[in-house]
Amino acid sequence: MFKKISKIILLIIFFSFFVLPSILTFAQTVQGQERVNLEQQLKELEERIAQYDKDITRTDKEKKTLKNQISVLKSKIGQLDTQIKKGNVTIQDLGFQIKDTESSIGKTSFRIENTKEKLTAILRTLSEEDQKSLLEILVAEPKLSNFFDNLVALEALHQKSQDLLKDIKVLKSDLETQKQNLDEEKEEVGKVVKVQTLQKQQSEEVRKEQEQVLKMTEAQYQQSLKEREGVQKQASEIRKRIFELAQVLDVDTPTFEEAYALASFAGSATGVRPALILGLLEIESAIGKNVGQCNCAGKPSCRYPNLTYKDIMRSNQWASFESIVAELGMNPNSTPVSCSVNGGKVQWGGAMGPAQFMPNTWLNLGYKSRVENSIGTRPASPWRVKDAFLAAASYLSDWDAVSQNRQNEIGAVTAYLCGTNRMTASCTRAGGSWYRNSVMQKADQWQKWIEQGVFNR
């Protein structure tokens, strides 16, 4: 019996010292290879996402251009339609004027013919009077003077009739000229209306074509959005798995090795240098060691347990803070937040977690949802160190730290404290110069350690 027990003990010892380490080493090798493969897949997916972003941006610009062109065409069509209606009214009015002029010409022609007949009768009478003999005149007229008076009257009537005929002919000529001008004007307006009608038809055809192109562009835009969403989902799953393989515990204060692993992941997800992320978080909270000294009743090393979040936060932050802690199942009256008390005077504060996000910034500017969409953790928490790393990196990337240009990085760090990448007077008063210099110094130290391979041993 004792021999059997001894054999079992020896087997356990053999397994523990020889077999188990080999199995663990093999498992670590497999996991390491899986992580390398996943990081390669993630890189390819992120390149696809970047291409989708370019396509979506380009398509969105095309949509806006087409919408503007269609709007311009609609305005042009409306203007042409108004001009065509105006032209048609003008043609109709000219038609009435032409009819009136034609009627006046007809009446004038009738007057001319009537006057001609009267002149003919006068001339006939004058001719008859001229052909009378002296005896006929003396027999017909008791006085010779009466004959001559009649003759003079006839001559005067003849002259007046001729003047009238001349005036009527001038009037007719004027009316005919007026009618000709009206006809020409009507013809010219008609040509303009025809051109405008053709332009309207062409504009409507172009508008219909562009609306069809817009529909196709919109369909392409929606398809790109859908495909990008699918790729982003795949990338999120891979990031989540890489996080799991990193074997970083969900602790409040990670070791340097754990912090580097988290910063490396956050850097690969956002394009920000891991050293810059680490330098920023070291200044903000000593990488999670100091997340706040107020609103922390019951917590060890709490300096101001009697100062509640309402004492140190501006009132416009309260609702967001209460919503965040309620979703996380935390007590709003004992969840640490940052504060500053100088000489007994309380300064405004309320920043949360290792990355020191203000409640409104975390909740309303989308950093919470970005963390959730990136690694699939819901709800994201500003006090969870993993989430804090990724949120901080996302904020820096929004201010162009992805360029990894030192000046841009300094601007992003400045914006992290002051909300602007410029060193304004208010930023200077808030300690902006000291802050960004301190962050960059810490980042330089972390970069040296990374380049020396300190975390790869």
> Please, how many domains?
2
Separation, N- and C-terminal Cα atoms: 47 Å
CATH superfamily of the largest domain: Methyl-accepting chemotaxis protein
CATH topology of the largest domain: Helix Hairpins
In short:
The protein is mainly alpha-helical.
What does this structure look like?
Strand 1 and strand 2 form a beta hairpin. The protein folds into two domains: 2-242, Orthogonal Bundle (Helix Hairpins), CATH 1.10.287.950; 249-291 and 352-456, Lysozyme. With 457 residues, it is mainly alpha-helical. The protein has helices at residues 2-131, 134-140, 144-246, 256-270, 274-285, 309-312, 315-328, 359-364, 367-375, 385-398, 406-418, 425-429, 432-451; strands at residues 340-342, 345-347. The radius of gyration is 50 Å and the shape is elongated. It has a two-stranded antiparallel sheet with strand order 1-2. 24% of the residues are buried. It is built from 13 helices and two strands, in the order αααααααββαααααα.
Strand and helix layout:
Layout: H1 2-131, H2 134-140, H3 144-246, H4 256-270, H5 274-285, H6 309-312, H7 315-328, E1 340-342, E2 345-347, H8 359-364, H9 367-375, H10 385-398, H11 406-418, H12 425-429, H13 432-451
Antiparallel strand pairs: 1-2
Helix pairs in contact: 1-3, 3-4, 4-5, 4-10, 5-10, 5-13, 9-10, 10-11, 11-13
